Prior knowledge:
This protein has helices at 3-7, 22-36, 56-68. The chain is an all-alpha fold.
Amino acid sequence: MTFPNVYGQEDLLVRDLTGSGKTLAFSLPLVERLRACKLLQTPARELQVIILAPTRELALQISRVLNDLKHHDNEYNVLAVYGGVPMDNQTW
């Protein structure tokens, strides 16, 4: 049960098997907290959250999950930035 901890802005260290839902366990309460605080209604391109991931694959997985949690396409933007690809080639 990580939802109350993440939603309450507590620090966590979570470990579990691959495919157990860890990404969703922090992404869902994060997005819900931003919605509740109306932080998703800020001007376009204003940074709200930075998520650090140790690998490109995990960064892309987190991006996909965050995009899947949107109520509509324009609710918020997600950008995965990682080495080997110029930022010019990445889109919001």
